[in-house]
Amino acid sequence: VQLQASGGGLVQAGGSLRLSCVASGRTFGIYDRGWFRQAPGKERAFVASIPWSGGGISYGDSVKGRFTISRDNAKNTVYLQMNSLKPEDTAVYYCAAKSKPGSAYDYWGQGTLVTVSS
User: Fold this and answer.
1) How many Å apart are CA 84 and CA 63, to the nearest integer?
2) Coil vs helix vs strand at 100
3) Based on the number of CB atoms within 10 Å of its own CB, is 46 exposed (0-12), middle (13-18) or buried (19 or more)?
4) For 7-11, 98-102, 105-109, which range has the lowest pLDDT when averaged over its residues?
5) Is 110 helix (H, G, I), strand (E, B) or coil?
6) Is 54's pLDDT higher than 80?
7) Contact criterion met (CB below 8 Å) for 47 and 59
8) What pLDDT is stored for residue 61 in this prediction?
9) What is the dihedral of CA 105, 4, 15, 90, to 10 degrees?
10) 3-class secondary structure, 28
11) Mean pLDDT of 18-35
């Protein structure tokens, strides 16, 4: 399974961006999908996750109420709509996928850079 993230860029504080992550290859073996981010000098942090069914969505505390994760299984794509962006949201955003329910994330995309200017 290969994951390709896109949609990053430079945006002013208060603006919005929509990230996409397309899965290719053995996509029938994908269950939960997620987004993580890594800011300069910091560890990778959880942003959001969504199960195959779309129910049971989870968000990191710092993005609740501002970010929305969704998925289109027919397109093998997961999205991250980011609104009310803050400079502290600046990071490389990675998409991930699980090959088994309840397992750790074992597929990772290459990352897309989001820069929020103040």
Assistant:
1) 10
2) coil
3) middle
4) 98-102
5) coil
6) no
7) yes
8) 97
9) 60
10) helix
11) 89
Q: Is residue 48's pLDDT more than 90?
A: yes
Show the DSSP H helices in the chain as ranges.
none
* Token code pair at residue 34: 């997620």
36-45 residues labelled b (16+ CB within 10 A) or e (exposed): bbeeeeeeee
Mean pLDDT of the 47-53 span: 91
Place of tokens 């990230």: 19
Kindly tell me if the per-residue pLDDT of 29 is higher than 80. Answer: no
Instruction: Look up tokens 């919005």; give the residue.
Output: 16
Query: What would you report as the CA-atom Rg of the chain, rounded to the nearest whole angstrom?
Result: 13
Sheet strands (E) in 13-83? 17-24, 33-38, 45-50, 58-59, 67-72, 77-82
Q: In whole angstroms, what is the distance from residue 78 CA to residue 34 CA? A: 8
Ranking 7-16, 26-35, 68-77, 88-97 by mean pLDDT, the lowest is: 26-35
Assess contact for 33 and 95: CB atoms under 8 A: yes
